[in-house]
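Quick log. Single chain, no ligands specified.
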Amino acid sequence: MTLPTILTEGNEEEAARLVAAYYRRLPDGLPAYTGSYFSSWAGGGDSGENRDTITADDLIAVSFLSVRIPGEAAIGFLDAHKDKISGLLKEIPSDHNFAHVSPANFPQVLGEDSAALELWHVLRGRDTGRWGVGRTKASKIMARKRPHLIPIYDSVVAPLMGLKKSDNQWLTWHGAFTEDPGLQQRLRKIREISGVEELISDLRVMDIVLWMYGKQFPMSSASSQE
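-> predicted structure:
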């Protein structure tokens, strides 16, 4: 696939400015973008004893990306289906890095029979009845729990990646890294140049750059705000 220009070699400085702008503070001390708290809120979604369960803090963190989890779904995540979700998260190691998943291992990690895809279906309520969690909300919950492995899908970023729907989205993202071995290092360089001290994941750097870039140069009339 063809990466958006902002992520290609030679544009690291411009991309870093977008990340820095995303993390800037307003004169009153509040963040310019509440999404800047998404990864770090309550210590992060993939740290400590809560890495294998969805917590109320995770749902708060997701709200910083301007989405709301309906009450029925929240009860499902935090109570009724908590054990099912926890079991699936335990099958998705928190140290998996998206860029390091080989094509041979992709089916096991993110393919049709993977725990990750099963969790995706659980979050969206495939077998329990839809409860207002679409592809954007599901991706943000999963990215909170496994920030190094699951990319965020929304209507600003998706068109830039050539995605018209969420089916096979992970395969498309994975193709970006396998076809451009230097992408991961550029993302890390972008984070370093930005001066942002928080050690956000490579995928989160990519998401912020694309989202900020997409808001400046929209490819779709729809948008989800962060």
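The radius of gyration is 17 Å.
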